[in-house]
């Protein structure tokens, strides 16, 4: 299995299988890439239930964050790196919400993390408060409440775009408070928070025309020398896949990739004329 994973594999977005919109998946095999296409906003899972849909025990703490299960990756727009999360490139240390408050400045992006959950992003607007997309509504909450027991960190530098001034970031966030459901222009908390800080329409739903070649590449680091690459037509699509990987965790993602490589090798060996 190790030899099958130690390759640089490219999948075009068009070649990645999707899930049937009616909920009937007729094909067998791995689902690499866009199984989220017909799913609801992932932040719907964050209040009152766990990621598997079961009721959450309000007296039980969130599953502790495990840094060993962090999925390290980089995103490229054509040849330019626009996002990178790795031990070497970013400070991935996490803190309790109370300790993070001592480090936050207005306009900072905050990420809440817990094993087995989608990461939740928010914009710190000062006075111990954040604005965030939660359960299909943009809310102004205290940072400690928004954390829901999760660990957190400042993630201003994961995206490589030039940031707006702190006052404009806060203004962008506060002006959206109260929007919900069909009024929203974002499918997840990360897209909203990143839009507030960088102001790029690509973070919004339908912010780019999905025609022609896929200019975005998501590179998942398998080991120090090997990686797996997926291609996407829009930043929004790429973010959804990246968040799916974060939800699964490194162990599950590597297992999924190993299954994919194994099926590819098996298909090749079954082709006519193969040795």
What's the CATH superfamily, by name?
endopeptidase domain like (from Nostoc punctiforme)
| Portion in strands | 15-25%
CATH class: Alpha Beta
**CATH fold naming:** endopeptidase fold (from Nostoc punctiforme)
Give me the side-by-side strand order of the main sheet.
1-10-9-2-3
Helix-strand string: HEEEHEEEEHEHHEEHH
Runs in which pLDDT lies below 50 for 5 or more consecutive residues are 1-41, 44-60
> Overall 3D geometry?
globular
Total beta-strand segments: 10
Walkthrough of the structure:
By secondary structure, the chain is an alpha+beta fold. It has a single domain (67-266), classed as endopeptidase domain like (from Nostoc punctiforme) (endopeptidase fold (from Nostoc punctiforme), Alpha-Beta Complex), CATH 3.90.1720. It contains 7 helices and 10 strands. The protein has helices at residues 2-5, 97-100, 143-147, 166-174, 189-198, 235-248, 250-270, and strands at 9-11, 73-77, 80-85, 109-113, 120-126, 129-133, 138-142, 151-154, 216-221, 227-232. It has a 5-stranded mixed sheet. Strand 5 and strand 6 form a beta hairpin. Helix 4 (166-174) packs across helix 5 (189-198). The longest helix has 21 residues, at 250-270.
What is the gist of this entry?
The protein has 275 residues and is of the alpha+beta class. Helix content is 24%, strand content 19%. The protein has a 5-stranded mixed sheet with strand order 1-10-9-2-3. It has a 5-stranded antiparallel sheet with strand order 7-6-5-4-8.
């Amino acid at each position: 299995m190790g030899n099958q994973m130690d390759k640089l594999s490219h999948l075009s977005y068009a070649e990645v299988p999707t899930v049937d919109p009616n909920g009937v998946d007729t094909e067998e095999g791995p689902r690499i890439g866009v199984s989220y296409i017909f799913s609801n906003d992932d932040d719907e899972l964050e209040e009152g239930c766990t990621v598997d849909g079961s009721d959450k025990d309000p007296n039980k703490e969130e599953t502790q964050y495990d840094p060993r299960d962090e999925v390290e990756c980089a995103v490229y727009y054509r040849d330019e790196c626009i996002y990178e999360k790795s031990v070497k490139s970013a400070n991935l240390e996490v803190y309790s919400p109370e300790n993070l408050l001592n480090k936050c400045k207005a306009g900072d992006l905050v990420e809440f993390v817990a094993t087995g959950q989608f990461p939740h992003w928010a914009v710190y607007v000062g006075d111990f408060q954040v604005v965030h997309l939660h359960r299909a509504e943009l809310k102004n909450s205290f940072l400690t409440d928004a954390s829901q027991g999760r660990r957190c960190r400042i993630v201003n530098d994961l995206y490589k775009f030039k940031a707006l001034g702190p006052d404009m970031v806060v203004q962008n966030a506060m002006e959206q408070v109260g929007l919900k459901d069909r009024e929203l222009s974002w499918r997840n908390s990360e897209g909203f928070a990143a839009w507030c800080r960088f102001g790029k329409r690509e973070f919004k739903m339908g912010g780019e025309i999905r025609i022609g070649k896929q200019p975005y590449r998501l590179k998942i680091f398998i080991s120090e020398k090997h990686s797996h690459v997926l291609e996407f037509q829009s930043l929004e699509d790429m973010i959804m896949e990246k968040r799916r990987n974060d939800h699964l965790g490194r162990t599950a993602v590597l297992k999924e990739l190993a299954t994919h490589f194994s099926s590819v090798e098996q298909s090749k060996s079954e082709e006519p004329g193969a040795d």
